[in-house]
From TrEMBL:
Keywords: Flavoprotein, FMN, Oxidoreductase, Pyrimidine biosynthesis. GO terms for cellular component: cytoplasm. Residues 3-289 form the Dihydroorotate dehydrogenase catalytic domain. Its cofactor is FMN. GO terms for biological process: 'de novo' pyrimidine nucleobase biosynthetic process; 'de novo' UMP biosynthetic process. Pathway: Pyrimidine metabolism; UMP biosynthesis via de novo pathway. This is Dihydroorotate dehydrogenase. GO terms for molecular function: dihydroorotate dehydrogenase activity. Pfam families: DHO_dh.
Length: 336
């Protein structure tokens, strides 16, 4: 069975990619993921807030040093006095990239210009095979217009693309007024890949304690349909690689995403829930399905159920919607 595929111009041994998660916070964790069979590993995200904190600490250190001696513009405090989050990250990236044979992709998470470009270049220099820009931005201010949100994504992409030569993917949320146009604009702006989709934190409310409950929940297979739809719609309409993420629990979801047209399928929740070794279970299930259906390569599978280029996507989606509602209305759900 031939599972090799291409993503971001990289050749991967298979289309299953370990998404950014706590599993990749150590070299041993990255090695376990690679040993389990994934085609690539996205390192856990380096957050903009960490970069900002480091910059503020360095600025305070430089200012404090000017009171001591004139040459103190290059002064920094003792290593024990600063947060080494970004430096630890780059060190881990370098060691992880050298420890496994699969590509290791660096991940930057943020919403403002900050030091994205500089740290993206540092990731490249530390051995990252590619950079994933996780633009986690919920425009809660009602004064912010949609075009402004879109331009922010394009600006961040441009800054990073100018700083690195390795491929750059953009991880998007699904909440644009015209997701297809946003994907096309990012594609035209030079995005090497699009990762669909990011999941926003959705707080709950505890009516007994009268508190907001903020927890990160793992995705379930029920969440696959939105990214599945957009993968099928975008296949063949953008030149960027398409990475599917969210809702991968079993080999069934992996297979569905490939049929829709994904170049790779990312998962974090399933690997966190069942352990890194679950990657082998997903891949074995994919191979078994391919054998049963008579497919020998991933290329024979990819995009079989994507919406054909040239089709009227809007009319098709509307038709499917009306038919689905008609069937639901005629279904006997039993006594109410």
């Amino acid at each position: 069975m031939e599972l090799s595929t291409r993503y971001l111009g990289l050749t991967l041994r298979n289309p299953l990619v370990a998404a950014a998660s706590p599993l990749s916070q150590t070299v041993d964790g990255v090695r376990r993921l690679a040993d389990a069979g994934v085609g690539a590993v996205v390192l856990y995200s380096l957050f903009e807030e960490q970069l900002r904190r480091e910059a503020e600490q360095n600025a305070r250190a430089a200012e404090a040093g000017t009171e001591s001696f004139a040459e103190s513009l290059s002064y920094f405090p003792h290593a024990a006095d600063v947060d080494h989050g970004p430096r630890r990250y780059l060190s881990l990236l370098e060691r992880a990239a050298g420890a496994v044979s699969v590509p290791v992709i660096g991940s930057l998470n943020g919403i403002t210009p900050g030091s994205w470009a500089r740290y993206a270049r540092s990731m490249q220099d530390s051995g990252a095979a590619a950079i994933e820009l996780n633009i986690y931005y919920l425009p809660a201010d009602p004064q912010i217009c949609g075009r402004g949100v879109e331009q922010r994504h394009l600006d961040i992409l441009a800054w990073v693309k100018d700083a690195v030569t390795v491929p750059v993917a953009v991880k998007l949320s699904p909440y644009f007024s015209a997701t297809g146009e946003m994907a096309r604009r990012l594609d035209e702006a030079g995005a090497d890949g699009l990762v669909l989709f990011n999941r926003f934190l959705q707080p709950d409310i505890d009516p007994e304690t009268l508190k907001v409950v903020r927890t990160v929940s793992l995705s379930t297979a029920a969440e696959i349909r939105l990214p599945l739809t957009w993968i099928a719609l975008l296949r063949g309409r953008v030149g960027a690689s398409l990475a599917a993420t969210t809702g991968v629990e079993s080999a069934a979801e992996l297979t569905k995403y490939l049929l829709a047209g994904a170049d790779v399928v990312m998962t974090a929740s399933a690997l966190l829930r069942h352990g890194p070794e679950h990657a082998a279970v997903l891949l074995d299930g994919l191979c078994e399905w391919m054998r049963r259906k008579g497919y020998a390569t991933i290329e024979e599978v990819r995009g079989l159920l994507a919406i054909p280029v040239g089709a009227d996507e809007t009319s098709r989606e509307r038709w499917d919607y009306v038919n689905a509602l008609s069937e639901a209305n005629s279904t006997d759900y039993g006594p109410w």
